[in-house]
């Protein structure tokens, strides 16, 4: 059994954990957590002297290249706390560095976005708006989500929320994930379900094996009149194949994420028909910062107590790390996770 760190011995108060944050707003909000000591660092500037001794750093959509200098300058840094659920942009981290995401903070508003995109196509809002611009009063029969089979690719917080809303609207959601479990089907089986789908919602994090999962063959298998929604990661969809499929007028789509992202001004996806396109804003809604703080603060306090944060990303979901140019042993969540895996 791994000895408990000396600062966590029974009878001793748990000290506050120093955390580097990118803005003063984080200082104000995280100071409400008794075990968190936030210190501001300006991204792109050298780490200030007060950064020494910090164990974690907050990342606001920062790539690993922007965070790495702080890990080089502060030897005690061991964990990245994300403000997002996605973490692929920091996955190329040093050995011994753990990643904790903000799963649960953005799921509600992103699920609303996904369902709204399905509804907008189902109720022909896009076509009716085009007719409105032409002052053209055109009748049309819209669809309904009642009884519609919705394939939800991703069975985490976001996927479950999408499924719950769909169920409330009397639709028939079917969940898929990398591994089958309970009411969740294996992602490898999704091809056999596409022909009966009314809509397919991608709510998956990015990984190498999922790149361009929705390729030309996948898109062609969606029935005529079907809808593709992507609120996961842009790279999971083959963008060129999607442009070609939308050009046929056979299917519709709603995407909040693109590949490349941001989308270049001259990209043909901008002009694709039957497409609702939003600039990766599904998780950013009124109250989202407060939800991020609650999720993040709870994880930081768990780490300060020597516990594993609930949102610690499993090693299996991350690519191999690179060696850290400084010496020292692991002491953070990854060390405890490694010890558990070995034992």
Task: Provide an overview of this structure.
It is built from nine helices and twelve strands. It has 343 residues and is of the alpha/beta class. The chain is elongated. The strands form two sheets. It has a seven-stranded parallel sheet with strand order 8-7-6-9-10-11-12, with helices on one face. A five-stranded parallel sheet has the order 2-1-3-4-5.
Give the SSE map.
Blueprint: E1 17-21, H1 24-30, E2 36-40, E3 56-59, H2 64-73, E4 79-82, E5 98-100, H3 107-122, H4 125-133, E6 149-153, H5 157-168, E7 172-177, E8 184-186, E9 199-202, H6 216-221, E10 227-230, H7 239-247, E11 252-255, E12 275-277, H8 288-304, H9 333-342
Parallel strand pairs: 1-2, 1-3, 3-4, 4-5, 6-7, 6-9, 7-8, 9-10, 10-11, 11-12
Highlighted features:
disordered C terminus; 9 helices; disordered N terminus; seven-stranded parallel β-sheet; 2 domains; Rossmann fold; five-stranded parallel β-sheet; alpha/beta; 343 residues
